[in-house]
Amino acid sequence: MEPRINLLANELGAKISKRIYNVSLAIQQSPLPRTVQDLVMLRASQINGCGFCVDYHSKDAAAAGETAVRLNLVAAWRESTVFTAAERAALALAEEGTRLADAHLGVSDGTWAEVREHYDDDQTVALVSLVAMINAANRLGVIVRNPGGSYEPGMFASMAP
């Protein structure tokens, strides 16, 4: 499968992509644990069917030391025992925040209460922003049909300011 357009090869696409990357970098540098960030990005990408993003986030998580067992169970996290209560709250928020268009009623009060039990204000802001940003990135990838399989960890480091 070939992408419909290479956003990074287009001047405007590259400019927009760099700004998205910089927002993502601010989230990455937040106090939200990197492991949680990786799990949330992977789960939202799975739901949205973004092959490139699933490739990207699973490889980055593995490179950061995430285990194959946990990566393989992200899609079935509700039926697994390998995630902490805090990770489960973040994954629930990721799913509910991602499925807004599926006639979902948004993020439930129960999920929000779980998130607030495990994350402080800065971590919650980072988590909510992360869900929004990964969904935007997934939509870009799906619309232009960016295929998965070619990502190498660190390949976008040159986009950093």
TrEMBL record:
Q: Which GO terms describe its molecular function?
A: peroxiredoxin activity
- Limits of the Carboxymuconolactone decarboxylase-like domain: 27-96
Q: Which NCBIfam families match?
A: ahpD_dom
Which SUPFAM superfamilies does the annotation name? AhpD-like
The organism's superkingdom is given as Bacteria
- The protein, known as: Carboxymuconolactone decarboxylase family protein
In this record, what's one Pfam family? CMD
Q: What is the lineage of its organism?
A: Bacteria, Bacillati, Actinomycetota, Actinomycetes, Streptosporangiales
